[in-house]
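We treat protein structure as text, and this decision shapes the records that our systems exchange. Because each token names a local backbone shape, the row as a whole describes the fold. An entry from our holdings is shown next, in its original layout:
>
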Amino acid sequence: MDPIYRMTYLQAVVIGLIQGITELFPISSLGHTVLIPSWLGGSWGTLVRQESRAESPYLAFVVGLHLATAVVLLGVYARTWVRVIRGFVTSIARREVRSADQKLAWLIVVATIPVGLAGLVLEHPFRVLFAKPLAAAIFLMINGGILFGGEILRRRAQRPADAPGPDAPARREALVGSPAATAAPEMAAAPDQEAEPGHRGDRDGMLDEAAEQRLARLGIGNALWIGASQILALFAGISREGVTMAGGLTRGLGREDALRFSFLLSTPVILAAGALKISDLTGPLGAGIRGQIIAGSVAAAATSLFAVLFLARWFRTRTLVPFAVYCLLAGLASVIRFGLF
């Protein structure tokens, strides 16, 4: 009998816990669901080795857990999604794009198109080809570099244009001509919210209407740039939330708004990825592990909810740097482990 069909409930719950928290933390869920079992070895490592097959029950199980994360995101941002969907419907009915809800709805649609098309063509072959410990470790290090790069570019963009130095005129010209300044001058000029410890405009860390107004000014070009960055998450070890946040920071978003936009963009992608695996999990690939699928999904939902609430507060005052350091160190250790031994 195929070892995957002997997945224990303990393994299902542990993998669910890992998937739920790492899907929303900027550290790659697929990378961790490959690396952690590989580090544990034994029957855990056997689960990962299933991913190299053309039809992998473990891969279907892991991706199927995305549904739990998507449901959590939909619940947390339910009021926002109601406004966005209403804005989309009224925009089509009235043939206009005026309100913030209408603009944000179309930004989400446009930003989702690149990763949607790429996912349909490349998702399965990429996951089968690169969902291996050494490849995941290398891409995890790359993910750390992307997070560092997003923070560095953001700080350069925020450097005062009138600060002393021979490049001050060039900085002034770059700031005026930057995508963030042209598409959203108010957003570029406003101080970052996380710099205000007492800020409670978004009291629960969720998406309030003021944040929607800011995101609606992002512009189509910037939204496409941020949305297309999600394509990198097809590689095991590259975080969807991480690259989306980094892309947002390079386009003038503050960390809180970059996180909010990444969650909004991720929801339909995660939901679609999980939904596509339903037929696999209800078919032969899911035979013998359907109880484990339910247990893993409950665990993934619990840690996903924790991740949303934790990150909403973390990025009020903190940066991506700790996550970048973690990815670089964990990736390096894994490269040594799986590349040399």
